[in-house]
Specification:
The chain is of the alpha+beta class. It has a domain of 95 residues. Helices cover 56% and strands 11% of the residues. It contains 11 helices and 14 strands. A 4-stranded antiparallel beta sheet has the order 3-4-5-6. A 3-stranded antiparallel beta sheet has the order 7-8-9. It has a 3-stranded antiparallel beta sheet with strand order 11-10-12. A hairpin with a 5-residue loop joins β10 and β11. The longest helix has 62 residues. The chain is rod-shaped.
Length: 492
């Protein structure tokens, strides 16, 4: 080997080790970065030895697609589970102490106790008070349920804004990748950014990707709607600030196509948007309609009736329970299913029974509203209990509930219990599915990381190899120096 070729080889070794050290150091610095793909300095043979031809980036598209898909499913399921837990909290703790079933059981027990001792005025007040507890539970739960819908709506707005922002960033990264591709290079940082944004987008909405000519990437939602193709497609949504039972939230649209809400406890939602829509437009409204049916059932159960023919005018004039109209005025009709939307937020105890102006014992005697023909205790007998017994029986008698709420011909107490059971079954299914989908997402992410992530042990081992190359180069430089000194000394 001539001195000139030795010098050339040495220079190339130093250049290679410098590039390799830089790449390896960057890898080590990003060991804990889940959004960083490992870089490798590729060596090729040249006239003066090895040469770093390019720096490649580890990629595994099948695993990336699996990670994105599982991320969407886990995000949607987790969002639904969180919403269900919030609704579940309205029922109290593990004993459901704030549930309708608990409040109504207390009312039935107090009513039965009053029927046993109808002369006890304190029991009359206690029964009316427990009826007020039922009303408060219905009112509070209904209002909080609409507040949950409003918060879900606000979160949808936030997610839509985030999605539009991510798509704008995705366009920038995608353009950088395409520009590098056009000049025969690879922008690894832009590729990392693009994949990272893809993962973040998948948390909001289900997404699939397609690589096209020039390393251009197009994005589509899980149901086929175009999300990004050359430019971002508009994701639009108009928020609704205030919710009542009759309020319908606006739709989320991607490129003009409406985003569908998820279905079921093991939800079909891909991403948080579909799960938030499910909470706002399906779960909460269904529970609200059940509360409304309970309120309607209570008004109907305790309605004033003719003692001579109790079934003739059943459900015409309200008794223990009445309701407010839109203006806040007390109404004494018994709503049907079609008119009961939002009734749980408007139900109230008949003011004629509430002290200090009301008389609780009217619950025992009848004719609460001062209407002729509705008084049962015509002799004003303090031991009269027939009407109280009837009320207790009617709470446990079968009646018709709106089938759209999951009801059928069933007694009021069972319907209230089934409503709690429906929510718990949905929550339980969601919790189990959340564990499964989260584990699936975690395994997919780990598999992707093992293929494209950085192994600290491997990088440290590579550094040792680079160090050996560097030592060999320095030894060669030392040898060349000795040769040059020998030549100079020989020359004179």
């Amino acid at each position: 080997m001539s001195i000139s070729s030795a010098l050339s080889t040495t220079k190339q070794i130093f250049s290679n080790t410098g590039t390799q050290t830089s790449v390896t150091s960057t890898n080590i610095a990003n060991t804990q970065n889940a959004n960083y793909a490992k870089r490798t300095a590729v060596l090729v043979s040249s006239g003066s030895g090895a040469l770093v031809a390019t720096t490649t980036r580890e990629q595994n598209q099948p695993l990336l697609r699996q990670t994105i898909a599982s991320t969407s499913l886990a995000s949607g399921q987790s969002t639904l589970a969180t919403g269900l837990e919030e609704i579940r909290s309205l029922l109290g703790g593990n004993d459901y102490e704030l549930s309708m079933s608990t409040a109504m059981t207390k009312l039935l027990n107090n009513l039965s106790a009053y029927a046993t001792k109808p002369s006890e005025a304190t029991l009359a007040s206690t029964t009316v008070s427990s009826a007020q507890d039922v009303v408060n539970t219905l009112n509070t739960t209904a209002n909080e349920l609409q507040a949950i819908r409003a918060r879900a709506d606000a979160e949808i707005k936030t997610q839509v804004d985030n999605l539009n922002g991510l798509l704008a960033q995705f366009e920038t990264a995608n353009t950088a990748v395409m520009k590098a591709e056009a000049i025969g290079k690879q922008d690894n940082d832009a590729l990392d950014t693009r994949d990272t944004l893809l993962k973040q987008i998948s948390e909001i909405v289900g997404v699939s990707s397609t690589i096209r000519a020039g390393n251009d990437m197009a994005l589509y939602t899980s149901d086929g709607t175009t999300l990004f193709e050359t430019i971002p497609r508009l994701v639009s949504f108009t928020p609704t600030k205030t919710y009542v039972a009759a309020t319908d939230g606006s739709a989320v649209k991607i490129d003009g196509a409406e985003v569908k809400a998820g279905i079921g406890g093991d939800t079909s939602a891909n991403g948080s948007l579909q799960a938030l829509l499910q909470i706002r437009d399906d779960v909460a409204p269904t529970f609200q309609s059940q509360l409304d049916e309970i309120a309607r059932g209570l008004i109907k159960t305790f309605a004033e009736t003719d003692p001579n023919d109790p079934n003739a005018d059943f459900g015409v004039v309200a008794g223990l329970f009445t309701h407010k109209d839109a203006g806040g005025l007390e109404q004494f009709d018994v709503p049907n299913a079609a008119d009961s939307v939002g009734l749980s937020a408007r139900i109230m105890v008949n003011s004629a029974l509430v002290p200090p102006t009301g008389v609780p014992t009217l619950l025992r005697d009848g004719d609460i509203n001062g209407l002729s023909g509705y008084k049962w205790n015509t002799n004003n007998d303090s031991s009269y209990s027939a009407l109280l017994d009837r009320h207790a029986q009617m709470m446990q008698a079968s009646q018709s509930f709106d089938t759209a709420t999951g009801g059928t011909d069933i007694d009021l107490m069972s319907y209230a219990s089934d409503s709690t059971g429906w929510l718990e079954a949905l929550r339980s299914s969601s919790t189990t599915a959340t564990e499964t989908k989260t584990a699936m997402q975690s395994r997919a992410a780990e598999a992707l990381s093992s293929e494209t992530g950085v192994s600290l042990d491997e990088e440290l081992s590579l550094l040792l190899d680079i160090e050996q190359s560097y030592k060999a180069a320095t030894k060669l430089v030392s040898t060349i120096d000795e040769m040059m000194n020998a030549l100079l000394n020989a020359a004179g």
